[in-house]
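Worked example 4.2. Below are the chains of a multi-component assembly; read each line carefully before continuing.
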Amino acid sequence: MMEFFEANKGLLLFTGATAGKMAAFLGAVMGFTALMTLAERKVSSLMQDRVGPNRASVFGLAFNGLFHPVADGIKMIMKEDFVPGRAEKLLFTLAPFFALVPVLMLFAVIPFGDYVMVLGYRVDLQIADLPLGLFFVLALSGIAIYGVFLGGWASKNNFALLGAMRGAAQMVSYEVVIGLTLVGLLMIYGTAGLQDMVRSQGGLLFGFVPAWGVVYQPFAFVLFFTAAIAENKRAPFDLVEGESEIIGYFLEYSSMRFAAFMFTEFLEIVLLSMLIATLFFGGWQVPYLYEAGFTLPGGARLPLNHYAVSALQVGAFAVKTVFFSWFMLIVRWTLPRFRFDQMMGLCWKALLPLALLNIFITGAVLLALGKI
Amino acid sequence: MIGVKKINNKPMDLLERIYLWEIARGLSVTMRHFFRNLFNPKAMPTIQYPEEPIPLAGNAKFRTRHRLKVRADGSPKCVACFLCATACPAYCIKIEAAEYPDNPVEKYPASFEVDLSRCVMCGMCVEACPEDAIAMDTKEIPGGSLSRSGLMMDKNTLLRNLPGEPSTLGAANRLANGYRGVK
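Applying the procedure described above to all two chains together yields the following structure tokens:
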């Protein structure tokens, strides 16, 4: 037995560390996503001078609505799990998984910290450090379209099918813009690994500006943010669902199958916030914080030990994620919906040429600076 | 002459056509509301009804929660004649009559119940009452309840004007309200 452990020590350590990271990171993500379902309603209500949900209580304690995600979950489980008689049973069942699983898999490549030393072993704070992480992201977000389309098509409901058609058209279109906006980042960082990208955002520009992606590529950030909201099917691009009147691809879904689609949408908010933070806002980087501690541009130093630095970095990543999640909620409740032709026009006539222009200008500047 | 409304459909200028500036303006409005309400929730006009009573203006002419008026000696003015229960279009008043042992002329309500889950607040009971014994002037809007029994008002509730106090409104005229016992 001991021989087995000795022989496979590296593999076992890797497995253990990865399992631990998955439990911690996915647990945090799931918990935060559950709170996002509450935050969506609370933020919208505060913006509209309302109080929002505050009635679900345990033993008379409501905590201003903190138990509403739990109440929602219980309600969803208690609902009838209905499958329409004419639906394709297998695909109808598979569709929520096609929506949920790719999004969950994408969290594997998100670097949520640099590394920590645990008992003398170095643990990278990223579940899977893929060298082509960015392409993994693009590939799996392409698979997420299957969830939408299968859900609408397998329901054998014309309205659901129309919703799925809208969804497929929208997601495929904006996928192109997302891919093209990221090319500029690839040109600057020279790598497609997300952890490497974050590490190369650690420097300073002109000696005091953090060298975050948004400083190099502000244009790409706006384009990416717009396309990301459209890819996530949220307002002002929510005409895939149009939940207030036309309803979308999950028209025939009920109970936890519907909850899976809904939860996917909120997971995507969190995922896109993390991606935006990683690609454009330095990921876990804190300005002026290095491995030994703070070093301000003036030369002042504040040495910190390794664990404090790691905690600060993970905390900074969490703060950035929360901020962009909140910002997406604000955007969703501020802007009115586009018409379908306007949305397609925005994608193909505005965002796509601008993304190409961004690549061209980035290339020209890099060529002028002699970087390529 | 047909009224003509001229709509000013001016073409969008450059700032409006690139959306971003207008979006930022819209976001500033919603964020201003968000942060004001986040840090100063008392500024919101929401009332936590029914826990929080809705304040009515002193001269508000609303039909509000019923009450039973009392005479100066504290007995209800109601003589259990059932006219209010008969007039009620929603059948929400239930009266059980009883007799005073020393007074063969008048009855009194042994129980007087108003079912608020049925009451339509029409005020017909007040109109019908020959003794001016029931009124809807408490300025108290009946709240919601999680149970049916919470919406049943019994005699003690109806005799209450303010929380915990017997109703004394309209009990000032001793001559009109005095209990005319038989000598």
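Take a moment to check your reading of the output against the notes. The radius of gyration of chain B is 27 Å. Chain B touches chain A through 16 residues (CB under 8 Å).
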